[in-house]
Write a structure and sequence with these properties.
Blueprint lengths: L2 E6 L5 H12 L10 E4 L2 H7 L2 H13 L4 H8 L3 H14 L2 E6 L6 E6 L3 E5 L4 H7 L3
Parallel strand pairs: 1-2, 1-5
Antiparallel strand pairs: 3-4
Helix pairs in contact: 1-5, 4-5
């Protein structure tokens, strides 16, 4: 089973991690470390790994749709929204978007590169209080 880790690391430099995450989130080439992404800011980590993206990833892993259109239909979500979120997931290196030509519109197939995602928080009580604004 191949696992991707979102890791909270208060020692990660915000500038380096932030730049890598922004580039990945814009749908560019994966700019994160292989098999993990470290983030020094807990709130940013939660924004990046938001529930809707995780739902899309989980659906790709479990249902293995043959196109973005099929994925959007399974999720009952707008095609353009699902496509944009898939581009973000590809930017993180979690999935690959495979273009297939054929009759009609070209298909883009989302392929999961990992079986699961885990969160490594590694936080002590003081860090938890700071993360929650206490």
């Amino acid at each position: 089973m191949k696992t991707y880790t979102f890791r909270y690391d208060p020692g990660a430099t915000l500038d380096q991690a932030g730049q890598r995450m922004l580039k990945a989130a814009r749908g560019g080439k994966p700019s994160v470390r292989k098999d993990e992404m470290a983030c020094a800011d807990f709130k940013t980590l939660l924004k990046i790994a938001r529930e809707s993206r995780l739902e899309i990833f989980r659906t790709i892993v479990n249902k293995k749709p043959d196109s973005i259109h099929a994925l959007a239909k399974i999720l009952d979500k707008d095609h353009s929204y699902v496509f944009r979120e898939c581009q973000v997931l590809e930017g993180f290196g979690l999935i690959q978007l495979e273009k297939a030509s054929g009759e009609g519109r070209p298909k883009v197939r989302p392929i999961a590169l990992y079986d699961r995602i885990v969160f490594d928080m590694g936080m002590n009580d003081a860090e938890l209080a700071t993360a929650h604004g206490q």
